[in-house]
Amino acid sequence: MSHHPDAAGFRAAASRFSTGVTVVTSSDGDGAPVGMTANSFTTVSTQPPTVLVSLKRGRTWQAVSASGRYAVNVLAADDVAIGRHFAGAALAQGAPALDARDGFFLLPAAIAQFGCEVVSTVEIADHTLFIGEVRWCRHQDGLPLAFYASRFRNGLGAEILPSDGLAYPAEGWTI
User: In which band, very low, low, confident or very high, does the pLDDT at 169 lie, cut at 50, 70 and 90?
Assistant: First the structure.
């Protein structure tokens, strides 16, 4: 017999893992840009440079499936409106402009961008893991937008240095 937590409890527990916020973009069958906000992004390998995004079935999933390409745009802390827009909320001033580069659609203010070719997929329940080999990337300075406890958050706190001598609470370890 299989036991699983209820959906609300699982979502609440998973929301305690702080993540960055990205917008995954691709092009539909007519070449028009599509995109969605996603926090399920991770690096997989550096040789060759490879990343993974997990997408639920929908317009962006369909575009990535058909084109075999996607871009990941890592949002800056002041890009909350853009994150909300690509999660389905309308913007008063209209959709943000996307730049095209080598067939990828990019958000110009993103603090990091990755242009990827799909090399593998894994179907898991109602999502697909799209593993993409990075064809190019770039970055700029800026604080990241974070997602924690189902809310957008301003990216980074203070750096913890080894000289801070913080102890591991249960064992008295120090770093």
Answer: low
Q: If you average pLDDT over every residue of the chain, what do you get?
A: 88
Helices assigned H by DSSP within the chain:
7-14, 59-67, 80-86
What b/e readout covers 47-60, taking b as 16+ CB neighbours within 10 angstroms?
eebbbbbbbeeeeb
What is 100-126 written as a DSSP string? Answer: EETTEEE-TT-SEEEEEEEEEEEEETT
Per-position b or e across 111-130, b if 16+ CB within 10 A of its CB: bbbbbbebeeeeeeeeebbb
Q: Which amino acid is at 129?
A: L
The pLDDT, as a whole number, for residue 1 is 53
pTM of the model: 0.87
Output the pLDDT for position 96: 84
DSSP-derived 3-state class of residue 80: helix
Q: Is the preceding omega at residue 48 within 30 degrees of 0, hence cis? A: yes
